[in-house]
């Protein structure tokens, strides 16, 4: 079971990545990449795995970064548990690609989800009227620059206008003030990927993140998804996920590097 879930967790990051008609997809055991000549946006330009001989790592990293810099394109680079050499994350930092954060792979069944909310909190599924609010919250709650707002807004709007893509978004309110967001990707099988939750710093510690987790689990269960997976930050979301019954998968770890992470919000 561990091996199956581990494969699912790593694969979900690839399957969730957005493609454009000209996106070049490389999908090999030693290298997984999406490169989009027509787009400078971070969601279209990603390296999701690199297994490289130590003697070649510095050269390969420099070539990839130079290609994106020449195109003026942002870049996400995932260093997962398969990536080699083992100090790949440190090499990316040394090459100037900031680290956004860490992720632990976790999963749980959705059937016993509790959708209860604190009395002061309500959660709404995002529609087109929520796009601006959602975008503003993401840029304030995450270490993202305001220049990222247009990308977030376009992604959320597209998801809402094209529900067949499987993305669902939520906005959390505390005493009628919008304070948090969360997203969910529903795959055609029985799997759902819980992605991108954030709460404004001033409202953390009030159960809002937990409420967003519960709301998404309830949505999964109500829509025929038996299993939910998440890449959880070890220090913030992972403890909440454990309390809600998520199981950590041994060896499922990713360090996320992101060219936006070094910019001022």
Number of strands: 11
Q: What is the number of helical segments per DSSP (H or I, 4+ residues)? A: 7
Distance between the termini: 41 Å
**Average pLDDT metric:** 90
- Work out the radius of gyration: 18 Å
Entry keywords:
265 residues; alpha+beta; Aminopeptidase; 11 strands
Question: Would you summarize the structure shown here?
Answer:
With 265 residues, the protein is of the alpha+beta class.
Question: How would you describe the overall organization of this protein?
Answer:
The chain is an alpha+beta fold. The chain has two domains: 2-104, no CATH class; 111-225, Gcn5-related N-acetyltransferase (GNAT) (Aminopeptidase, 3-Layer(aba) Sandwich). It has helices at 2-15, 54-71, 88-94, 131-141, 149-161, 208-222, 237-243, and strands spanning 24-28, 31-35, 46-50, 76-80, 99-109, 121-125, 167-174, 177-186, 191-199, 227-232, 247-258. It has an eleven-stranded mixed beta sheet with strand order 1-2-3-4-11-5-10-9-8-7-6, sandwiched between helices. It starts with a helix and ends in a 7-residue tail after the last strand.
């Amino acid at each position: 079971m561990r091996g199956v879930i581990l494969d699912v967790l790593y694969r979900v990051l690839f399957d969730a990545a957005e493609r454009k008609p000209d996106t070049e997809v490389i999908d090999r055991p030693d290298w997984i990449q999406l490169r989009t000549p027509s787009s400078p946006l971070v969601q279209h330009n990603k390296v999701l795995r690199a297994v490289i001989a130590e003697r070649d790592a510095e050269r390969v990293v420099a070539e990839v970064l130079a290609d994106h810099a020449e195109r003026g394109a942002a870049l996400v680079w995932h260093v997962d548990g398969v990536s080699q050499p083992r100090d790949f994350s440190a090499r990316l930092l040394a090459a100037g690609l900031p680290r956004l954060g860490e992720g632990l792979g976790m999963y749980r069944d959705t059937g016993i989800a509790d959708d209860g909310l604190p009395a002061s909190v309500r959660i709404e599924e995002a529609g087109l009227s929520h796009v601006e609010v959602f975008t503003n919250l993401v840029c304030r709650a995450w270490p993202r620059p305001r220049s990222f707002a247009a990308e977030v807004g376009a992604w959320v709007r597209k998801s809402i206008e094209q529900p067949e893509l499987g993305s669902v978004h939520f906005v959390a309110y505390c005493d009628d003030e919008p304070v948090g967001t969360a997203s969910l990707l529903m795959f055609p099988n029985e799997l759902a990927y819980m992605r991108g939750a954030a709460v404004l710093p001033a409202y953390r510690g009030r159960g809002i993140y937990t409420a967003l987790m519960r709301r998404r689990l309830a949505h999964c269960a109500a829509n025929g998804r038996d299993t939910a997976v998440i890449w959880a930050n070890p220090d913030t979301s992972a403890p909440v996920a454990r309390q809600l019954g998520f199981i950590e998968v041994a060896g499922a770890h990713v360090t996320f590097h992101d060219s936006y992470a070094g910019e001022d919000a």
